[in-house]
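Researcher: For the annotation table, I need structure tokens for Chromo domain-containing protein. Please keep the output clean. Sequence:
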Amino acid sequence: MDLPEEWLLDVPKAAPVAPKESTIDRVVNAGFDDDGVVKYRVRWYGYPPSQDTWKPRENIPKNFILRFWHPMGRTELDLKEGAYIVKFIGHI
């Protein structure tokens, strides 16, 4: 059955789909960028390690950073003093 044209104009269009936000699963490494800024390698929830990204400290909730350092008995200060060896060698 064909609907009258004026009825079609009253049909609401589909709502736009919001972009999917990624959620941090955990921090898996720490290091410095070329400017000496501390960055953390982030594992994203639901994504494989190949999708990890390096993020500055300011963009990561503090509890994730603390959970990274606590099991090792280290702090970010150890990284700055050279007591923590970066596990992943590569361009940050």
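Researcher: And a one-line annotation?
Model: The chain has one domain: 22-92.
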